[in-house]
């Protein structure tokens, strides 16, 4: 059967450039999608498996396929360069991008979390982190929070994060990387009993909302299982699947309370990720590695 690939941004208008954030048609995410985040999804899904230089104009064009303006796409890519996640490579008037060592490390860690979500066993040990980072280092505090969520931590209260897994080594490495040693403490232990564990889970994670997010993912994408899609449609669907699914490791540390919907979502993700890989990659490669002669002849304004 053939399914419609309704995965552009709802706010995009054919007669004008769309705004910098939008919501995906047919698959509304829980919050607006930023072009920087979508660019990272593209890099992780289509460049990380085979690292190489990709044409900047092609990346801009692919972001436009999701409804972003050229200006928003270029700003997003420039910000990734400024964050040390992309490196520019110039060849005359042409500009390519390559992954930086930092982005390779982060994307590989992301893949590990995404593809192992829910598979990690636990002996019942929890990890608690307290920090007292001053306001003068609020940027590092925000970075710490993002990374802790990615590791499956939840915020118990201001300055206190917990994980239902033993994460001492990862947290100590993270604190050293952010130069926050001496401004935080890590403790591992076990809740007193099942009631204490349930209280902590209820306090930190919204299990009902998390289950609803998994069900929303299933509803949005199950209709694409076995669908006949052309290369562009396969690219749009697969990218959207990856972008939506990659949020789950930051929301769900692997709670048994949502094991059922998580397992179904993981199975659907894996099936679509593999089934659409070849045509999606083909579309990405065609857009990001154009003939230099064609670029020079037809898109001189997009060379840098």
The whole-number mean of residue pLDDT values reads: 85
Number of domains: 2
The description of the largest β-sheet is:
4 strands, antiparallel
Strand fraction: 5-15%
Helix and strand run: HEHHEEHEHEEHEHHHHHHH
Q: What is the CA-based Rg, rounded?
A: 21 Å
Biggest sheet strand order reads 5-6-4-7
Counting DSSP H or I runs of 4 or more residues, the number of helices is 13
**Share of helical residues:** 40-55%
Structural class: alpha+beta
Based on Cα principal axes, name the global outline: globular
Please characterize this protein's 3D structure.
With 304 residues, this protein is of the alpha+beta class. It has two domains: 1-123 and 211-304, no CATH class; 126-189, Alpha-Beta Plaits, CATH 3.30.70. It is 51% helix and 11% strand. It has 13 helices and seven strands. A hairpin with a 2-residue loop joins strand 5 and strand 6. It is globular and about 60 Å long. Mean pLDDT is 85; it is low at 6-30.
List the helices and strands and how they pair.
Blueprint: H1 35-46, E1 54-55, H2 56-65, H3 70-82, E2 86-91, E3 94-99, H4 101-115, E4 126-131, H5 138-150, E5 154-157, E6 160-163, H6 168-177, E7 184-189, H7 194-204, H8 207-221, H9 231-245, H10 248-251, H11 259-275, H12 277-288, H13 292-298
Antiparallel strand pairs: 1-3, 2-3, 4-6, 4-7, 5-6
Helix pairs in contact: 2-3, 2-12, 8-11, 9-11, 9-12
């Amino acid at each position: 059967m053939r399914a419609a690939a309704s995965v552009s941004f709802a706010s995009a208008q054919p007669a004008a450039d769309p705004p910098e954030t939008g919501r995906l048609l047919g698959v509304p995410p829980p919050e607006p999608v930023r072009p920087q985040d979508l660019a990272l999804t593209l890099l992780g899904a289509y460049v990380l498996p085979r690292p190489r230089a990709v044409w900047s104009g092609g990346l801009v064009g692919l972001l436009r396929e999701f409804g972003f303006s050229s200006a928003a796409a270029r700003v997003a890519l420039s910000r990734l360069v400024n964050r040390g996640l992309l490196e520019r490579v110039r060849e005359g008037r042409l500009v390519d991008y390559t992954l930086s060592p930092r982005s390779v490390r982060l994307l590989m860690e992301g893949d590990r979390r995404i593809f192992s979500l829910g598979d990690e066993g636990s002996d019942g040990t929890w990890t608690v982190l307290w920090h007292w980072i001053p306001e003068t280092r609020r940027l590092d505090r925000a970075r710490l929070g993002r990374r802790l969520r990615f590791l499956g931590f939840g915020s118990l209260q201001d300055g206190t994060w917990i994980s239902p897994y033993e994460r001492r080594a990862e947290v100590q490495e993270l604190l050293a990387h952010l130069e926050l040693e001496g401004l935080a403490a890590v403790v591992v232990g076990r809740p007193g009993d099942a009631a204490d564990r349930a209280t902590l889970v209820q306090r930190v994670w919204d299990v009902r909302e998390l289950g609803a997010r998994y069900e929303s993912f299933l509803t949005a994408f199950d209709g694409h299982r076995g669908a006949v899609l052309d290369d562009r449609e396969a690219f749009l669907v697969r990218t959207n699947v990856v972008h939506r699914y990659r949020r789950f490791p930051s929301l769900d540390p692997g709670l048994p309370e949502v094991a059922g919907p998580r397992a179904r979502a993981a199975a659907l993700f894996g099936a679509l990720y593999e089934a659409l890989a070849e045509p999606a990659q083909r579309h990405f490669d065609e857009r990001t590695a154009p003939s230099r002669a064609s670029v020079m002849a037809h898109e001189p304004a997009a060379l840098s």
